[in-house]
Specification:
This protein has a single domain, classed as Aminopeptidase, CATH 3.40.630. Helices cover 35% and strands 34% of the residues. A 7-stranded mixed sheet has the order 1-2-3-4-5-7-6, with helices on both faces. The chain is globular.
């Protein structure tokens, strides 16, 4: 597995991974209406381009297949992290998060914050992130998630 920066050429694969992961993996914690609404938010190519240009946006890849991706804003906000539905529980998220945290330290970012789904909360808790609050967000439909953070040593 290797890590590289995302490029505009990756957008179709990123959009598909985003959609299929939410529609399958997150369905155990959210309703079908919630996951449909959430997955539909990944269809705007210009937003992905903006993220690739403005954030530290990395992909985990093996044999030219994208296994997952993550992006960090320079403010220390982990904007998103998604792992392909067929590669859950295989260390991809740990690999991505380790690289995100290394990059944050290089940029003198002392704390990473994230809005984390119910599905991802146990993973982030295991990695030393603490829940600051449970929150309800509206993305065209109301959903519960967690504001979490980790102070980097």
């Amino acid at each position: 597995m290797n890590i590289r920066l995302a490029t505009k050429k990756d957008i179709p694969a990123i959009e598909e991974l985003f959609r299929s992961t939410i529609l399958s993996v997150n369905l155990k914690d959210y309703t079908s209406e919630q996951v449909e609404c959430w997955a539909a938010r990944g269809k705007d190519t210009s937003i992905w381009e903006e993220r690739i240009n403005e954030q530290y946006f990395i992909l985990a890849e093996k044999n030219n297949t994208i296994l997952g991706f993550a992006a960090l804003k320079l403010s220390g906000y982990l904007n998103f992290m998604f792992v392909h539905k067929d590669y859950q529980g295989k260390g991809v998220a740990s690999f991505l998060l380790k690289r995100i945290e290394e990059y944050a330290r290089l940029k003198d970012i002392s704390e990473i914050t994230a809005d984390v789904s119910i599905t991802a909360e146990p993973f982030f808790s295991k990695k030393g992130y603490i829940i600051l609050e449970q929150q309800t967000v509206c993305i065209g439909i109301s959903m519960t998630n967690y504001k979490m953070s980790k102070v980097l040593s």
